[in-house]
Design brief:
- With 93 residues, the protein is mostly beta strands.
- The chain contains no helices and ten strands.
- A hairpin with a 2-residue loop joins strand 2 and strand 3.
- Strands 1-2-3-10-5-8 form a six-stranded antiparallel beta sheet, with no helix packed on it.
- The model has no long low-confidence stretch (mean pLDDT 96).
- 15% of the residues are buried.
Length: 93
């Protein structure tokens, strides 16, 4: 069954699914700044738009565009700045 998730007063929405590649979410983020925590390793790929990311243990923001992926370790927090509505795919391990 698909799982629908909503965060930050509806500014981030995703649909969760399980398939041959494992547990995934496909979602969208509205313009804004967000902080997320992880419980597993997350592989986040930008599908459309861009995410400015501050990864754990880093002082430098990095901009990821369409087709680019960043990885966040389990048990960590990361910050995002979203300047335009952005779509993403997140794979959990």
């Amino acid at each position: 069954m698909l799982a629908v998730n909503e965060y930050f007063d509806g500014k981030v929405k995703s649909i969760g699914l399980n398939n041959a590649s494992g547990k995934n979410t496909v979602g969208v983020m509205d313009i804004g700044e967000y902080e997320f925590g992880t419980s597993t390793v997350e592989y986040m790929t930008v599908v459309s738009g861009a995410l400015n990311v501050l990864l754990p243990d880093s002082d430098t923001w990095h901009l990821y565009g369409a087709g680019e992926t960043f990885i966040v370790a389990a048990g960590k927090k990361f910050k995002l700045k979203v300047a335009e509505q952005t779509a993403y795919l997140c794979r959990y391990e």
